[in-house]
Amino acid sequence: MIETDHPADGAAGGTTTTDGAAAATTGGRLSLLESVLADTRAQDRAALIGYFPAGFPTVRGGIDCAVAMAEGGCDVIEIGLPHSDPVLDGPVIQTADDIALRGGVRIADVIATVGEVHAATGVPVLCMTYWNPVDRYGVARFAAELAAAGGAGCILPDLPVEEAGAWRKAAAEHGLATVFVVAPSSRDKRLAEITAAGSGFVYAASLMGVTGTRESVGRQAGELVRRTRAVGDLPVCVGLGVSTGAQAAEVASFADGVIVGSAFVQRVLDHADDTPAAVAAVRGLATELAAATRREG
Amino acid sequence: MSDGYFLPDPEGRVPSAGGYFGEFGGIFVPEALRAAVEEVAAEYEKAKGDPAFAAELEDLLVNYTGRPSALTEVPRFAEHAGGARVFLKREDLNHTGSHKINNVLGQALLTRRMGKTRVIAETGAGQHGVATATACALFGLECVIYMGEIDTERQALNVARMRMLGAEVVPVTSGSRTLKDAINEAFRDWVANVDRTHYLFGTVAGPHPFPALVRDFHRVIGVEARRQILERTGRLPDAVAACVGGGSNAIGLFHAFLPDEGVRLVGLEAAGHGVASGKHAATLTAGGPGILHGSRSYVLQDDEGQITEPYSISAGLDYPGIGPEHAYLKDSGRAEYRPVTDDEAMRALRMLARTEGIIAAIESAHALAGALDLGRELGPEATVLVNLSGRGDKDMDTAARYFGLYDEGADK
Description:
By secondary structure, chain A is of the alpha/beta class.
């Protein structure tokens, strides 16, 4: 395991709970996520949600980058749990996951990253993870530790709603969000089932494909947001392929949130040997994207 | 031919409607692929009830593939198996050289029924890739095959065969650069191109309906073999043996024998350098329950759910997962699964070549090694049926290097 601060340090930083048992039932920050998304909606703007994988390029470096993203203007942070088989990710995040895993990143490091980023910035921090690591680690254990660290919930891109019972129960006990991903191919009936089972927000994939930057945001995104809103009350945030201010502004005009991941990771890959420069580049991109999401439509 | 050749499980025992074999199986796919997987399941259900589908598949299996495949008794080989009688089900004699063509032709017909014009597939040893490229040539479908970079090197002959047949072969450079990573890349392609693309999955793993659908297209192996061995010996075999990577040839052989309680079903896994060495692909022997490539089954993984890199000399068995029905058969006790090392498989490969004049695929040689042990355990009165799932032409470079068959100084 890579040396990091103990997860409990992150939890202690930004929480008022002092009793361990109380933390186990109320530690999750779902309500903070909900209030942040309500606030951005009240301000008539889209939330900016930034994704960054834990342990990349190192555990410390990943924390610094995610903190810089929040300081640069991300309203919500997603911390990726690197996986050996990231089937829904394109080459950029695959590369980052490989680097993180070769560096020895462990689930404790991921949870510590969530905790530290939340403690340092106060923004809601979610974990985005493929399902097998959670299944193997233990659903209840993972939820308890994520909540204790101050996490806001999980985005679960390959967990079908039919298989999500155990997670949803644990998430409800610990005050964690359950964010499901919907796709342009999802039929209306399924969108309704998924939206009803989720919490926090719904992650709408802008196009049919894996993560990575694209020339343009799929035309299907707006239609998917419209269809998802029609069947439920959760905010709908759009991800996949968004990398520039112009794309963020376009998505912000029709969605509750704009999710950006690969573009941040690419900035760090571009500054592989210079962590301060990488952190600065990440901060700069967050600033640019935040300005775009606040632009009048 | 009264049995027919398209033989979906008549009992309807498993899987459940949600695709579960006991606690294994299911549909663990991203939402973007949900509709596509459901479309395959719906089309397959329709095809099962369509006599025209069965007739067309039967015509292909008989007149194109060459079914029924032979059942060959191998007495000189059996002298090394404790004197038990050993029979080989000769799937190596099918067109394209392995059992894979059975499933591929069925799914190619489904592809056409769904109106899709592009087919993608993963391949390890290249046998499924060659079969898929063959069917795509036959049906006029665009074909892209994903193959781990390491496998493109050790199975170079099959890469050439696929390209000869007009397929695009994409070497996959991510992860362990073997079968698992080829499947990851095929899923990524499918998500992006699902409107016009069918993922012609090559084994009895993956999300429902693939474990049941691929099994049904391979059930013909066991149905034929059961009939043939009854005709030849007047009784059922004491054991049937097959190699397992993802498990398609094994499930195809086993399935017809499931109700025959006196017949032992034995799957042989690739133990590489030995299970204790950590360099193996013995998923059922050394793995645990987990989710990989769309279903819950046994997987090779670490304590935090990261899939570990498998190893086998055999590209077709070099996979850290296994079909969910095998996991179910293992846990229920109906089938048993044993590890076979590289060295044991290669010895059996050479023994069959020199005693019977048959060069098996290295995958199938794992089953041969298992049969040698089974024969010795069961004694001279026993009969063992082995699935010879593929022929070994593709493996000659690996075998030549292993046994030192190249002339000194020859170009390798």
